[in-house]
């Protein structure tokens, strides 16, 4: 133990001379303790500056546009291969990351980055749902996605869904007993049917404020991440977190270094520093998520370690579903639910040249005007599609009332008169600046 502490002390001293200046960090809101940034500056002399984005897609857009100015960014497992294939993040020089040896064995070779060539672990997150036991009949809901997608009458209209298409698609797939990577178009249609059936029971689709939403009584059931669920339980003693028996997503958030980092030396220093057990434990204690670093348990709150939503009981570990690599055929399909007066289909597009999935929306409004999604505002590779008619339009051709500002945004909704051209005419054609690619699908159930 003394030898270990001495080694860590030497490491802290040696890394403090690596860099100077500033390190710019990008992260989601409320996911990095400010005190930690102050501590890093105090120990290293490098000023840590935090900027936030609201999604992985927003981060991707910033990196594609060359903006953001990040030296380090936090991103989910699904986006690591996307960013790596696009050349937007750095292949790591592990000689500069000695603390990578602290990564727990079960997290050293994840499917999204088998040798951890691009990403080092941040937090371990599980998605399930929480409910207020005081407001459900008998004080208990079954530990099944059925309680969420096909709820008892007392809960209907009192459900909060995360605005996370991938999360909903996977949960509905597991509820149906289907593989989330199924290539069968009928499986996608069945998922759509589940989401459409749930829609009348959902009060809101939002990632913002899930803790306050259930604590304040706005909803009875909330689709939620386990760290947020644990914070709900601190404020609402009757709250229960469910890891559904059909399967629950276990996602790994990661530290990456953008390819255009201005201070890569400081970036390596920060990533390495974050893998010290006593450092990453501070993030776990603040936001109530587990982490992937050996020895961090000694610095984590005892109550957190006892919480079954964080330290998963052995009989529920098999329910956790880590990142899975889907085939190209599985990626090219429509997904969806209904929101308001628009039947929205959530689609993952696939670029055969860059192997880069992108979330897009296609929709049909109540008038004879199609609602479409921005594929890319800046020039991009062509995409191959089928069973949908596609066209390229300039921004000036897009019309109100659904028109929104698109600078730096993805999956924004627009409308246009339907005079599409065939999809074959768009294959391998790059988009010019200020043009967008748009789709006119036959219906919400269209699979392509």
UniProtKB/TrEMBL annotation:
Cellular component terms per the entry's GO annotation: periplasmic space
Keywords, comma-separated and alphabetical: Periplasm, Signal, Transport
A biological process term (GO) from this entry: polyamine transport
Signal peptide feature range: 1-19
One Gene Ontology molecular-function label: polyamine binding
Compartments, as annotated in UniProt: Periplasm
TM annotation in the entry: none
InterPro entries: SBP (IPR006059), Sperm_putr-bd (IPR001188)
Keyword Endoplasmic reticulum attributed: no
Primary location recorded for the protein, binned into one broad class: periplasm
Pfam family membership, one: SBP_bac_8
UniProt name for this protein: Spermidine/putrescine transport system substrate-binding protein
Native organism: Paraburkholderia phenazinium
UniProt lineage: Bacteria, Pseudomonadati, Pseudomonadota, Betaproteobacteria, Burkholderiales
